[in-house]
Amino acid sequence: MSPTKNNERLLAEPLPSSSMSAMFGDAMNVVKSFIGSNYLVMPFAFAQGGLVLGSFALVFIAVLTDHCCGLIVKCKRRAEANMIARSEKPPVFTYGDVAREAFGESVVDIVDAILTFTQFGFCVEYFIFVVTTLRSFTPGTSLYLLALVPLSFLIPCAFLPSVQSLSPVSALANLAIMCGFVGILSYDITTGGKDLFNLKGVVLFNWEQFPIFFSITMSCFEGIGTVLPVEQSMASGSKNYPKMLHGAIGFTTCFLGSIGIIGLLRFEQHGVEQIATENLPEKSSLTTCITSALIFAILFTFPLQIFPVIQCCEKWALKPSKKDQKMFSTDKSYNPLQFEASQEVSGQEEARQQEEGASNVIQLGSVGTWFFQTAGFPMLPDGESFDAIVVYGPTAGLHLRKTYLLRTVIILFASLIGLVAINYFSYIASLVGALGATALSFIIPSLIHMKLFPELSMKELVGDVAICFIGVVAAVVGLYVTIKDWVKAV
Fold it and tell me: What is the pTM of this model?
């Protein structure tokens, strides 16, 4: 066995913990990574694709997604093994890191840009849903006033150093998403007096609008960007990931298919709204409970989805200058606590800092860790408190203010796009699926697999090329039809 393949085998070994609680927690994390509130657009998606064509296509997309998620994990292990063979220490791999190992540094920014676009699109969809739902509670109220309600919560959340502090509420958010799903499904099945097995008024095949179905469904499989973080954090060992991945995608397929098919049968082709909650009765206690639960879930899911966008934007926009990089050397012999304020700060500036110093004290392990990693400054041992501006000079304070400003601008930009596209939720979902999710799920994994595994058999090579071809065609046609229909709708 070659050293590289032996390293891959060792990297796939399970971690010591294999208790039932660890496995259950890992399974829930895998499922959670694929299911979000985008399921609300699935009835509309089935109305675009048709009952039979949409059902077959959903299974086809699920099978390809499962295969390509497995490819990403397989490529990550090969990338790790290659680095070990070169006597390099592998990092905690991200999607971009795997692309770097395959194609070099230049490709990382492309992958990060696609990830950023996809996650940002999800956040725009979330904002549209929240404001649309609030408008149904208070008809006649200005959209801009309604937008202040979620913004007053989302902007402070964007200042969190990490999303770990939202973990306890995240579990409740997932429960709320499931409650909303059960409520909508129950209403569609039990209310209205329509025979769900009567296919009159239901289109079985809709080839003309099928690209819209494909793109929307791609955006509903939200887990491709979180495959590696989830796989690497499994307490029961990454060797269990393939089985849990199969189960999670199978569950997600049933989840999306059930609400999409039953919603189409219940409201027929032209009665399905873009968002499933808009088909619920107005001023009903059931509707209020379902939509309130979903608003709660989305408000606490939004920070999780926007955080990768923030990280990429900060990496691009807040790179330290060459002067800063030289001054704040990461040489181990450099001790920033010994930095004299007089070397960087004038006496007047130092006096101002002493007056405002309390607001600049940073505790490492929280904001400090996030701030100094973003700024590219050297780190101190955990638990040390210090005045960031006195230690690092005014550059640190300026960087911190730029960070807060950038995060605020990102949230406001997402909200602005959401307000402009308030009536076009499904087209936003289709656009995200065509431009982002299709590339991340099908095209990039296949290209990386072909590059990192030159020993592929002809069958495997043909399979990768076929998946790339499907992804490119789906992206191009989906984008064309989405833009054409969007322009027509406007």
Answer: 0.78
